[in-house]
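As a representative case, we now present a protein record of this kind.
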Amino acid sequence: MENFKLNSGKVKAVLPIYMVLFSFFVICCDNNEIKSNSEFFYPPKADVESTFETFYPDSGGLGTKLIIKGSNFGTDTNYVRVTVNQLKAKVVRVNDNILYAVVPARADTGYVRLYIRKGEEEVEYTSDREFKYMFKSNVSTLIGTPGKQAADERLDGAYTVALLRRPWQIITDKDGTIYWSDEGRGQSKNGALRKASNGEVETLVYNSSGPYQSCNGFAFNSTQDTLFMANRWNSADVRNDVSVMYSTREANFVNVKALINFPKSSTASVAIHPKTGELFFDHNDEGAVYKYNKNAPNGYEKMFNVRGSYNAMDMRLLFNKEGDILYLVLRGKHCIYKVSYDAATHTFGTPEPFAGEWSTSGYENGEGLAARFNSPSSPCLDPEGNLLIPDKFNHCIRKITPKGTVSLYAGKPRESGHADGLPDKAKFFEPEALTFHRNTLYVADRGNHCIRKVVIE
């Protein structure tokens, strides 16, 4: 028993030493294993042809795990990249003959492309079928009560309490505050400039004897401290010659002043160049586009006529993100034109048809001039640079890619009404204007007297 106790004591004394040695051994082994694993990250073999055999699943939404099968991918993710419909997909793992990637947001339907770098050369492989992107979107009513319009004295307050009156222009700032105009012409309070933020609606300006008599288009300057607005003249109600007016953030946009006086121009839209800050506006009675130039006679200069002597186009202007294309939505002619712009020389090219057919209304999706619209109105761009357009009398929202492919974005074509829900089930009533902020499209749903939103993913 004494010997046993003695040995037991030695064991207790030696055990901690063994534990330390064992831990050291494990750490060394782990380190060796890490070093060993790093040796397995290798590029694709330069002298062996790579292949792209297939991918799956063939459909899904944001975050879908995409599996690509083939050969000679290597195991180092630095040598491969993947796109879905031209948008970058994050590559999370590659094992020479199988690759794992994550589908990016808003990829839309398109081909899967695999790019493999070998030395200085990058080889592109394209799938033989398209990945079908499943959008997770929903249409809802944000502000106002559908079908109930405000009186001349607007009812402000919470989004669900406030009443609107034919909202027909809309814009958001970088903080997500929404500004819109309730339709109205003349000096009475039947028109108003309003804003919504943090769950509350506030009326900023009413129609009056001053410049603000027929607000018909919005554009912020690059710093968003100045809001420019078109003031649309008509002989029956408007009693001033103001074409473009402005107000400033410093004064909470209530200090509306005249910028351009142009008698009987019936200006419906203003556009700010995204790089130069130049301001352009339309002249409806001439079918022309002008530029603000404080050094020119009267403060403006003519840029071009859209189509010879044709007028009464009821134009809406919007530059693409790069500023090298000006879109001309010709509401009165049921089509969209575009014209190139050189910011270095400050010159435009020749306007040309982009989507829809001149003076032909209807509803058709498709490529460019084969599409049909019915009074397309004030557009916006989505984050991918697509043109989103409220197709007013088709009671829906359309999308046009930069290449001119036209499709349905939301709503039930030719069916007016009010219904929230999935985009293809939702109903609008004469949607008039759009604005996009982050992942949300806001719609001035004129006929329903409310602001709708389409949340994307």
